[in-house]
């Protein structure tokens, strides 16, 4: 009887040990930290006021992130297709763009776009508009070129410039993701589609890209989360996103710990939520295969 009791005890201890080993402790710790900060935001006046102050920054951060990501994925797909092109000129231009954008730090790219590229583009538009006003003395074109001649750098706010910079930078990364996904599909499938009478673009649309998207979904999701975090770089342009609002809150109240605890809490909450959504989408795409 004693031996049987000892065997049962050993089995119970082993089972309990296996259960403890299966628990994702990092999740438990994150949830505990999140609940603690949530309690502080609800119960502590300093944390609550900081959270209320930062809400507008959350809206701006999400706006920058989603807008830049849409443009980055769109341009990245086009550049990725160009990177797989057999046309030497198209391939060279796309590769040059990718190498330049990937080699420039994002904060430098943001400053360059905001204070160099945008003013240069505005000056070019103004010059073109002044030419058009002289060439077209009346009519619709005269009005269009007249509007262009009055364009000012102030017409393009800093948050739009931040979106342009992030979209340009991340388009290079998305291009490489799409290129890898397209090239991972066997060449035989393209040859089979062409033999069925499809042209190159039809084969890409109906055969290659649907399979490539499934394969590139995880890195695309990771880049989306990375873009959300890199949106904080817009603070160098004084865009009132979460980080900039946190800096303003800290400067006005000198509540450093409370302010940046809430800033970190907001970023972590959004990134974990988005990562979970990406995992769900990835699983659904796998089931459909």
Describe this structure in words.
Helices cover 85% and strands 0% of the residues. With 289 residues, it is mainly alpha-helical. The longest helix has 39 residues.
Descriptive terms for the model:
MetI-like fold; 289 residues; 11 helices
Shape: flat
Radius of gyration: 26 Å
Can you say what the CATH homologous superfamily of the domain at 69-233 is? MetI-like
Helix content: over 70%
Largest sheet: none
| Total strand segments | 0
**Which structural class should the secondary elements be placed in?**
mainly alpha
CATH architecture of the domain at 69-233: Orthogonal Bundle
Taking the alpha carbons of the first and last residues, their distance comes to 55 Å
Count the DSSP helices: 11
Tell me the name of the CATH class of the domain at 69-233: Mainly Alpha
Can you give the mean pLDDT? 86
Helix and strand arrangement:
Blueprint: H1 2-22, H2 25-43, H3 45-83, H4 88-103, H5 106-135, H6 140-149, H7 158-183, H8 187-195, H9 200-230, H10 242-253, H11 256-288
Helix pairs in contact: 2-3, 3-4, 3-7, 3-9, 3-10, 3-11, 4-7, 5-6, 5-7, 7-9, 8-9, 9-11, 10-11
Question: Quick summary of this structure?
Answer:
This protein has 289 residues and is mostly helical. Helices cover 85% and strands 0% of the residues.
């Amino acid at each position: 009887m004693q031996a049987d009791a000892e065997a049962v005890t050993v089995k119970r201890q082993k089972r309990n040990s296996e259960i403890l080993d299966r628990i994702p402790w990092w999740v438990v710790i994150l949830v505990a930290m999140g609940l603690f900060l949530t309690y502080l935001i609800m119960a502590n006046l300093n944390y609550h006021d900081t959270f209320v102050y930062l809400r507008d920054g959350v809206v701006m951060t999400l706006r920058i992130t989603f807008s830049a990501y849409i443009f980055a994925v769109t341009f990245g797909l086009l550049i990725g297709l160009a990177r797989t092109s057999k046309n030497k000129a198209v391939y060279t231009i796309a590769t040059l763009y990718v190498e330049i954008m990937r080699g420039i730090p994002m904060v430098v790219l943001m400053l360059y776009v905001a204070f160099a590229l945008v003013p240069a583009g505005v000056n070019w538009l103004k010059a073109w508009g002044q030419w058009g006003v002289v060439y077209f003395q009346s009519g619709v074109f005269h009005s269009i070129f007249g509007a262009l001649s009055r364009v000012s750098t102030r017409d393009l706010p800093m948050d739009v410039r931040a979106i342009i910079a992030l979209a340009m930078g991340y388009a290079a990364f998305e291009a490489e993701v799409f290129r890898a996904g397209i090239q991972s599909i066997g060449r035989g499938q393209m040859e089979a589609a062409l033999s069925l009478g499809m042209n190159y673009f039809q084969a890409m649309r109906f055969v290659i890209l649907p399979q490539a998207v499934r394969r590139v979904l995880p890195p695309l999701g990771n880049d989306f989360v990375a873009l959300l975090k890199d949106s904080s770089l817009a603070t160098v342009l004084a865009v009132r996103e979460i980080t900039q609002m946190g800096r303003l809150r800290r400067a006005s109240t000198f509540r450093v710990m409370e302010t940046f605890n809430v800033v970190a809490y907001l970023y972590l909450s959004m990134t974990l939520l988005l990562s979970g959504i990406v995992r769900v989408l990835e699983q659904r795409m796998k089931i459909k295969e």
